[in-house]
Amino acid sequence: MNRLVLGCGYLGLRVARLWETKGDDVYVVTRSKINAEKFQREGMIPVIADITDSHTVKDLPKADTILFSVGMDRKKYDSVHNVYVNGLKNVLSGIKAPPSQLIYVSSTGVYGNFEGAWIDENSPTNPSRDGGKACLAAEEVLRDCRFATQSCILRFAGIYGPQRVPTKTLIQSQQWKKISSDGYLNLVHVDDGARIIQKVAEQAVVQETFNVSDGNPPKRKEYYRFIAEQLGLSEIPWEETETLNTNTRSGSNKRVSNKKLIAQFGNIFLYETFRTGLRQALAVDE
Fold first, then answer.
1. Up-side HSE of residue 279: CA atoms within 13 Å toward CB?
2. Does domain 2-159+190-213+255-270 have CATH number 3.40.630.10?
């Protein structure tokens, strides 16, 4: 199989490695010549291009599966809409041979705030943040494009794993005054996310939308407390924190169900809860 990965970063690179290990020909798009050399050493086929520049993606290689897993590089780009929406448009225009499947990595940020209620793929979309708005706009572009019938949308919850425990530095530096403990965190370990994408490709699923979350969202307080315990840090004074952060509550409080995902692929999670996932991530980081 020929696979094309756009966005070969924290998640995309893991997917590329899984495909490469299985003997697939894996093309990876990168802006960096240094990264291109690194990918080539791993047995992948680098394509130097920038999705925000239509001229560089006008002749993308033919692929059975295309994975669009582009993140926002705030060091290089100012507009998330330009990256997620215009970047996707450029890529779609640059595809000459129709793929069997186009997998788009979106975000559960497209749903907005549900005051802590459970939501699924049929819940209304009303994003409050720029990232969620851009992802939703990109989904609409995909549904209206010539590859709509070959597409599958994966709405990812917060991705964490080794070198990506978002609150680790915050807690270690004791900057607890900046933490809001209210609301739920919807999470998925990066290794589970990569394996799920691999399963979606193996089953050639198209014209579907899935929420990719471990389905066990903790309260922020519970999540932060566990990290502090694992790192041997003193307990965060939550009462004072909650008083200080009265006006900084989450604007997208919800619990994301993964029942549709499990019904399709079975319970394939290695890390069903943040506790097992964080133990692994923190152990690797040490």
1. 6
2. no
